[in-house]
Structure to design on (168 residues):
């Protein structure tokens, strides 16, 4: 480990090399907390983490097990925006509300397009391609189908379920 200190003997830069090839570079803030961190783990991931003055990660760019992702977080460490990709699963751009509920997403799930936008009570718009290949476009009220443009009632996804599928 190597620490570079400023004129007040506070850490400014921290370099670390661990067993197994793991390494880290941290650019430190006023309270000797990492504000910018780069990590490498040859067994799993590479990441760039940007943190605020309270040492809370606000932005994360990573490649974990070959799957890239970008996350922006709210003040309480909850997700705000995420871009994800998983091989043979698809890509997703998702947005969360202040209650940690995924309510807007645009992407590909199993190489099929999906778009949904919901209010907190699961009222909103959903478009997706069903398992049988037919498109489905509908309006939902409190999670129940209200109207379908295609005659096929869309299956309502949850953003967490989609994230699980993409990250698998």
């Amino acid at each position: 480990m190597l620490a570079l200190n400023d004129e007040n003997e506070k850490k400014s830069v921290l370099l670390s090399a661990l067993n197994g090839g793991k390494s880290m570079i941290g650019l430190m803030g006023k309270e000797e907390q990492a504000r910018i961190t780069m990590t490498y783990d040859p067994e799993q991931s590479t990441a760039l983490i940007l943190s605020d003055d309270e040492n809370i990660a606000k932005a994360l760019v990573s490649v974990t097990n070959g799957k890239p992702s970008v996350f922006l977080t709210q003040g309480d460490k909850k997700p705000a925006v995420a871009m994800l990709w998983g091989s043979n699963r698809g890509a997703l751009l998702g947005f969360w509300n202040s209650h940690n509920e995924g309510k807007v997403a645009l992407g590909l799930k199993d190489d099929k397009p999906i778009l949904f936008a919901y209010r907190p009570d699961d009222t909103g718009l959903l478009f997706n391609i069903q398992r049988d290949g037919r498109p489905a476009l509908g309006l939902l009220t409190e999670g129940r189908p209200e109207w379908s443009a295609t005659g096929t009632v869309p299956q309502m996804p949850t953003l967490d379920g989609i994230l699980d599928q993409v990250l698998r």
